[in-house]
Amino acid sequence: MLVSSKIYLNDAFEKGYAFPHFNYWDSNSIRAEIAAAEELNLPVILAWAEKHSPEIGIDDALALGKYFGSRAKVPVILHLDHGVSPDLVKKGIDNGFTSVMIDASDKEFEDNVSITKDIVEYGHKRGVVVEAEIGHVGTNSTEDNSKYTEVDAARKFAEKTGVDSIAVSIGTSHGSYKTGTPKLNFDRLSELRKAIPIPLVLHGGSSSGDDNLRKAAELGITKVNIFTDLANASLHASESNKFDSEMSLAFAQRDAITDLCKHYYDVFETNNYEYHI
Question: How does pLDDT run across 192-209, given as a tens digit for each residue?
Fold first, then answer.
């Protein structure tokens, strides 16, 4: 069943655990992610990112998400991740995403506020929760470095926009790390948690270190985005075995993704969510 993320992230915010957020890119990945949630009897956040439009467009992503999400035995939050085009985000709101992220973090502060506030008002009128980003979670390249989230700016951003959750930057990056496990700024995270009375989100969770991620959840992160690790698990499954059919390959990839999803549920202590279906 498709649901809003609001009660789940608020519960995590109050109790010091987190929900994993899994990006999907085809029917095999979304089936694997739902299978992990159903096995553990826990809600699942399934996400499609605008940057994946060349491989799977929003219409196909919605069709997959609504089809499999509505048939799942656990609550499914269908999330639009890193929407940088306001019109596309509004299309997602109108057509079935139960949660969206508007990402104007590359804009000046007031522009980020204005763009985000518009999406918040649009989404709330239609029962859809909105995530935004303040600071910048970059990639592992010299051209796109992360910028830590400033506490005062984040507090003002939350107040001015009415956003439901905020993605913060404390040292993670998107993609694969080239220099080992990152060093996260837990002092900054603690300051943000005290200053902002809404759920905090961590992007770039893949390969950021289980201990790092578990501590981040304990200190106030309520959702952690995972994509690269899932894609790599699928890739490694296809490379490490010989298969007698495309179906056996698909099952191997699905099993690898499901196992990794279950691992992250354990890391984030999502089992602390008490209202199992």
Answer: 999 999 999 999 878 778
